[in-house]
Amino acid sequence: MNSHALRSIALSITLCCAPSLASAQEAGGTTEVDTQSAPAEAAESEITTKARKHFQKGVDYYGEGDLVAAMVEFKRAYDIEPTFRLLYNIAQVVVEQRDYAAAERYFKDYLAEGKTQIEIERRIEVERELERLRGRVANVSLHSSLPNAQLFVDEQLVGREPLPKAVRVSAGRRTVRAELPGHAPVRRVIDVVGGEAQRVELVFLTPLDQRYAESDPSYSRDEPSSRSLGPALWTGLATGVLAAGTVGMAIWTQSEQSDYDAAVQRETTRTELDRLSDSTEQKALITDVLLGATVVAGVITVVLLLTDEDSAERATASAIERRPDAMRLRF
C-alpha cells in the first residue's frame, strides 16, 4: 500500500473516533482544560487528553505503515477512555495485519457497543466487511487427550480442555499446542481453510512414550521407530510365527502318516511306500525343529519380559490405549 493510500485511511479513521478525540483533531489537535472546573470534570478532561495523545500517535504510526505500533497506541487509548469508535480503528489495523479472526471480533464489538449511535452508512460498511471476513475465518475445535490442559493457537492461550466451543481462527497455516505440567507439550501445524470447520486432536505422550522420546530423538508417537516395540515384543511375535508354523507342519506330517498307513493296507509298490515314508520322516523332522525353535523363542521372550521393565509395561498396560471417547490398539 502506498503512502498516499495510508494517509487517506489514517484520515478516515481519525474522523471516526470518539467525538471528544475527533473534535480535538479537527480543531488542530489541541484541547484546552478549564482549570476552574470541578475536580471531577478536570479529571475527565485529563483522561480525554491522555487518550487523544495515544490516539494521535496511533494515527501517525498507521500513516507510516507501522501497524504494530499503531495497534499498541490505539489499544492504550481504548484502555484509558473506552469508546466504541476506537474499536473500528483497531479492527482496521488487524485487517491490515491479516488477523481476520481478530478483525471480525472487533467489528462485531463495534456494532454491539455502538448500537444506534453508529451512522447507517458506517453500519452498512461494517456489515459488508463482516460478510467478507466470514470467508477468511473458520471454526477449529481443539481437544487434548488429558483434561485441564492449556490450549494455544499461534502462541495465544485460548482456554483449557475442555473448551466450551470452537475457536475462530484466521485462514492459513496455524500452530496449535497443548501444555500440561508433568507432560511434554504437544504441538501441531495445521492448514485452516476459510469457512470450513476443523477438529484437531492433541494427544499427549504416555510416560513410557516420553521416556523413549527423551532417549531417542528420532522417536515419534505417530510414526514409531522399531525400537519402540521393544525386544520382548519382537521375540514374542517371532514365537507366534514359529508356533503357527509348527502347528501347520504337524498337521501336514499327520496327513502324510495317514497316507502311508493307508498305502500299507492296500496293494502298492515298494517304491511308493519308501517315498511316503521318507516324506513323512522329513516333515516330522521339520516339525521337531520348529517346535524346538518355538520353545527357545518362548523362553527368550519370558526372560526379556522379566528383565525388561519397559517391555513388560508395553506388552501389558500400554498395548491398549484407553481414551474417554475411544479405545484403540497402539504399538
Structural class: alpha+beta
Question: Mind telling me which CATH architecture of the largest domain this is?
Answer: Alpha Horseshoe
CATH structural fold name of the largest domain: Serine Threonine Protein Phosphatase 5, Tetratricopeptide repeat
What is the helix fraction of residues, given as a range? 55-70%
Number of helices: 11
Order of helices and strands: HHHHHHHEEEEEEEHHHHEE
Overall number of structural domains: 3
Q: What is the CATH H-level superfamily of the largest domain?
A: Tetratricopeptide repeat domain
What is the end-to-end distance?
54 Å
Strand coverage percent: 5-15%
Trace the largest sheet across and list its strands.
3-2-5-6
Mean pLDDT rating: 75
The CATH class name of the largest domain reads Mainly Alpha
Looking at the structure, what is the overall shape? Answer: rod-shaped
Main pleated-sheet profile: 4 strands, antiparallel
What would you say this structure looks like, in words?
58% of the residues lie in helices and 15% in strands. A hairpin with a 2-residue loop joins β8 and β9. α2 packs across α3 and α5 packs antiparallel against α6. It has eleven helices and nine strands. The chain has three domains: 132 residues, Serine Threonine Protein Phosphatase 5, Tetratricopeptide repeat (Alpha Horseshoe); 68 residues, Carboxypeptidase-like, regulatory domain (Immunoglobulin-like); 77 residues. By secondary structure, it is α+β, with helices and mostly antiparallel strands. A four-stranded antiparallel β-sheet has the order 3-2-5-6, with no helix packed on it. It has a three-stranded mixed β-sheet with strand order 4-1-7.
